[in-house]
Amino acid sequence: MARVKTGFTRRKRHKKILKMTKGQFGTRSKLYKRANEAMLKSLWYSYRDRRTRKRDLRGLWITRINAAARMHGMSYSRLMSAFKKADIGLNRKMLADIAVRDPQTFKTLVEQTKAA
């Protein structure tokens, strides 16, 4: 059986990694070994931070709802409790969006919860 050299395959693999690390600082985008380490780390960070982003956004929504609720004389926890009792099924993302973009509608929602 003939001997197979990895010239074409290796070059193709290396080029793929170097292309992925384009824009990294220094040898992290120039040398294959450093680029491969950087690429593995960056893929791990992106995987982890996709989950962290969800956590951060939920905190942001809660902060926005709390600020808007306090403008109408309620705390966040009392408002959310009132929403459940009034059977208003809006999630935090939608509530935060309404609070920021349409304060008049948010005020109407708060009035409905106070009535209930």
Describe the structure.
This protein has about 120 residues and is an all-alpha fold. The protein contains five helices and no strands. It has helices spanning about 5-20, 30-70, 75-85, 90-100, 105-115. The longest helix is centred in the middle third of the chain and has 40 residues, at about 30-70.
What is the end-to-end distance? Answer: 84 Å
Number of helices: 5
Low-confidence stretches: none
CATH 2nd-level architecture: Orthogonal Bundle
CATH class: Mainly Alpha
Radius of gyration (Å):
26 Å
Tag the structure with descriptive keywords.
mainly alpha, c-terminal domain of poly(a) binding protein, rod-shaped, 116 residues
A few lines on this structure:
This protein has helices spanning 7-20, 32-71, 76-85, 92-101, 103-115. The chain is an all-alpha fold and 116 residues long.
Topology diagram in text:
Layout lengths: L6 H14 L11 H40 L4 H10 L6 H10 L1 H13 L1
